[in-house]
Each structure stands twice: as C-alpha cells, then as structure tokens.
Amino acid sequence: MTCHDQRVDAVLWIVLGVLLGVAEMFTFTFVLTMLSAGAFAAAIAAALGAGVPVQAAVFVIVSTLSLVAVRPVIRRHRLARLEADETPMGVEAISGSTGLVLEKVDMDHGLVKIDGELWTARSYDATQVLEPGERVRVIEVKGATAMVWRDF
Asked: Which SUPFAM superfamilies does this UniProt record tie to the protein (predicted)?
C-alpha cells in the first residue's frame, strides 16, 4: 500500500467520524458518538500504515468498548442530573413548557413563541388546528420542531 492510499483511508475514516458526530446532534443517544470515536481511531490506524482489515478491527473494537464502557457512564450522569432536579438545558428545557401561537399551527406548519424564543411547531394531534393567540403546551421536540397541544 502506498502512502497516498494510507492518506485516502485516513481521510475517509475522518469523514465518516465527522458525519457520525453531526448525525449525533439529531439523535442525542450517544451511540453515534461512540461510532464516531471508532472511526477516528481507525483513521489513526490508517495514518500509521495499518491495512484495511486492521482499520476495520480498530473501528469495531474502539466502538464496542466505547459503547460498553463510556456510554453507560454518560447516561448515568445524565440521569443523575435529571433526578437531582437540576434545571434542564436545551431541548429538555422546553418539553412541558407553554407557548403562544404566532402563526397558525397544524400538522404541516406553524410558529410558536416558547420562553421568548421562536420555534417552528406542528400539532401533536393531526386533527388540531391552533390559531394565533392560543396557548399551547410542548409535548415533545422532534429535531428543531416543537410538537404542541392546545393548553386549556
């Protein structure tokens, strides 16, 4: 294998690691983060001249060890924080919050104001149509969209 091939392999593993890292931002499961770590470890193996079978083995081993050893620790700290009644952050912070409909919300589109921030919104119940001025409660967040329900 030539030096050029080693660099190409390393770059491909790095690209995979970055893509997995970006995808993790949309899932928050920490699984893709562990796979990303495996891809970066395989990139290092490729840069050091390891063949493709060794690179693949490094990817599998590092990913598996990360999933088995690191992910439970992260989850335990995350659960401990939630149980300690700390103030939730990010998406967790708006679940259960109330908001105000600014533009009609239905199953296809909408805009609400939640805690001073504008959020795209969809009706959690596909049959509900919420008009501007109505109060809503955030049931869950999917990506960057708040799934809302009429708040009585």
From this structure: NfeD domain-like
Whether residues 24 and 75 fall in one domain? yes
Which residue range is the domain that position 25 belongs to? 1-81
Note whether 91 and 78 are within 8 A (CB): no
Q: What is the CATH number of the domain that holds 123?
A: 2.40.50.140
pTM of the model: 0.52
Say yes or no: 6 and 75 in one domain: yes
